[in-house]
Write a structure and sequence with these properties.
alpha+beta, Trna Endonuclease, Chain: A, domain 1, 3-stranded antiparallel sheet, 9 helices
Length: about 220
Amino acid sequence: MIRTIPELIRHLLCVRTIDLDSLKKYIKLSHEVLHNALMQLERKGLLKISGGYIEVANVIGLAVEGLKLGLSHESVATCLRWKDFEYYTSKILEAHGYYVYRGLKGGRFEIDVLGYRGGLALAVDCKHWKRSRLSLLKAHAEAHISRVEKLSYAIKARMVDIGFRKGKILPVIVTLYEPYEKVFNGVPLVPIGEFNDFVLNVRRYVEELNLITFTV
């Protein structure tokens, strides 16, 4: 049974679409509290309510809202899919004028999302897992560095033609949670809720944080 607003948010994240009558069967909230909560989430652009049906309009935004209200990262992560992160990061990059490729594959590498603009490319690895041990973070960072290095070789050798032929490629890992460290082995670890700000200020971060890049 759903007894709190955070529990309501988690349920909506998991089901994505539900009719209001069915939702009420799981609810232990008063009609007024439920109505106000749904209206507030709709005003924030997180839900779409029409004809007695509720649809999640912004999966990542709703997840971040749930985290703010006290949901654990573990409970939210079980309702998210890898594709949710890929889609969200792609849309943010496109909104800032980046040319975007999703699921870019080569013989020895695969990049979840690649966006480039003005001589800088961001190679994004989307991780929606719960909190990881430091050793696992290190392994993920090293594996992503290796993938991006292979991508840079492929671009130089003209084995991959995506329109990006000269500049720097920055490996980035996007996560659900606030990581223990902002940068690991020269790779920025960016919480999904902060990715928009990261993209806005990425050129400054490259210089200030001494981030690893590959030149092509």
